Amino acid sequence: MIDARDLAGLARLIGDLPTLVHAHGKNGNDLLGMATATRDERLCRILLDHGADPASANVHGWTALHQAGYVGLPLLVTMLLDAGAPVDVPARGDGGTPLVVALFWGHREAAEVLAARDLAPGNLRVAAGLGRAGLLDELLAPDGTLSPAAGAHREFHRPHSGFPEWRPSDDPAEIVDEALSWAARNDRSSAIRTLVARGARVDADVYRGTALTWAAAQGKASAIRTLAELGASVNRQGKFGGLSHGEGVTALHLAVQGGHVDAVRALLAAGADPSLEDSLYSSSALGWAEHFEQAEILTMLRSA
């Protein structure tokens, strides 16, 4: 009924069998978490009204609020917060709060709603993703010196098992470079400039993607223009996302896949080459546009 968006049927069934609202399935996922994944606030409202626990977590510590941050819906985030969903619980590693999950995917609006309640874990990548200049200054001095809190609570690095394993280090360069990619995926141009001025390497790949490829994948055109202006290589080929997804991809491949017209336009203006082929599929960005049926982008690339 959740998959079918059958609101009346779900309400009727939960009304007849109230204990179902507390049932857990594979990996400990409950109905509220599953409903959140559908991005349909109405389903979540029904479950909450029938007693669903907004603090319930699966075996990875993942709550419905984590899922709401993952899908990036501010209204759903607000609904769960108002129902009592906890904001400071970690999932998939230390520091994996719902705020961090939202920032991981560049969901600025959802992240702002969460940050208004709690900034946990308050490290450098969170400051960068939110574009909080004051917090950036506290964590990273103009001379590049990091405070102890800047690199703390960074064990969270993937929202699901499709991404490979990784362990963050205490290397100051890694901490600053990672924060740059979080600023880029959230379109925080001012934070990008601050981080680069204080030592971030514009083409660094800390974990499955440079700042530019993350900006492209999330369609952040302003960040793309800023990074290109600061010297990012728009034709750099590298890894992105899961092991079976991005090998030898360029930022342009990823912008094309997401259908991000403005991002594609910004990359082309910065000199991106549509003919470069990735390593997994031996296909150019133009080929990706054909595969993903991006008609407007296909026209742009052919013109280029």
From TrEMBL:
The keyword Secreted does not apply. InterPro entries: Ankyrin_rpt, Ankyrin_rpt-contain_sf. It comes from the Bacteria. SMART domains: ANK. Keywords: ANK repeat, Repeat. The keyword Repeat applies. ANK repeats lie at residues 60-92, 247-279. This is Ankryin.
